Amino acid sequence: MIYLDSAATTAVRREVLEAMWPYLTGDFGNPSSTHSLGERAADALAEARASVAASLGARTNEIIFTSGGTEADNLALKGIALAAPQGRHIITTPIEHEAVLESCDYLRRHHGFTVSFLGVGSDGLVDPNEFAALLTPETTLASIMYANNEIGTVQPIAELAARAQSAKVPLHTDAVQAAGWLSLNVTGLGVDALTISGHKLGAPKGIGALYVRGRVPLEPVLHGGGQERGARSGTENVAGAVGLATALRIAESTREADAVRVTALRDEFITSVLREVPDALLTGPAERRLPGLASFCFTKTSGESVLLELERQGIVCSSGSACAAGSDEPSHVLVAVGYEPAVAQTAVRFTMGPSITADEVHEAAAAVKTAVLAVQGITR
Ligand code: PLP
After folding, report:
1. Does the annotation mark 323 as catalytic?
2. Hey, which CATH number is domain 14-251, 3.60.20.10, 2.40.10.120, 3.40.640.10, 3.30.70.100?
3. Cα of 73 to ligand 1 centre, how many Å?
């Protein structure tokens, strides 16, 4: 099988599992316990937090472990919006992950916030000047994703953060897809909050983290025992935190070389598909694209039929985001960047991990041609 669905999830890396193992077995204590097992767990958690902070260029007390990207996005949006002393206005984009969009909608419906959607071009990019024009004294928070999970657009986060900072508005970015490929240095980016998720970069599902800059007030979403300095109650996932810290450290040390190698393979794949497959449209930007992501609309097919045909040939990929897979609705991202719903329904997303090989990419490109032609033959 050739796995081209790394944006959906990744396998746990051996080094990550090995680092986690002690905290799932012998040193399984609860970090809140005062006995030695608890102390060892608390030490491991503190070390993991320091390591994640170092990977992000943040301070240790600015990292909150969560159950993943969805929870971190919810905590950023609701936590910052509800703690803000004044203002009831949020700025976001129509191509965010549902965790951001639905949190905005919740704040609108239950807490009287208004939500402004910053427009995106046909490549998914936002314009920092248009962003600046939406900022008002009422604006509580802006949330703009670092890299899009369906079409791979990488936003100019540092420029956006500079505009937000001038208006004294905190900027949150969902960096779930950027992690492992792009710099997550929060000082360089200038963001006030940033979301990451372990299972997209070789740590297990069920662990993530939210960075929140020290001075930004945060209202907890989960109430209980007061763990994570009161920001996120619940017994900490010690092994998960150790796994996330390890995966991030590895990613930080390899990501620049991985990005160069995988970008070249991805471009070869895109060129081959556009040349060989009739009526294929590349979605997303030509430049400013996540290294491992190639997404197309195979017009005159159905995305689901192409996926089935590809799977028969041993290629595993997705029809868009994993969350939307299986739904009949066209992707909100593709509709927002201007595709007709009928075209959006023909979308197929290929996402390569850092260990992808040239042979796999060549084999996959040939399989895509065969699969699309087979489906077109059936449906024509
Ligand atoms: N944000 C983005 C951009 C994603 O791609 C995903 C997962 O696909 C999430 C958030 C949600 O992360 P998790 O699966 O850890 O809840």
Report:
1. yes
2. 3.40.640.10
3. 9
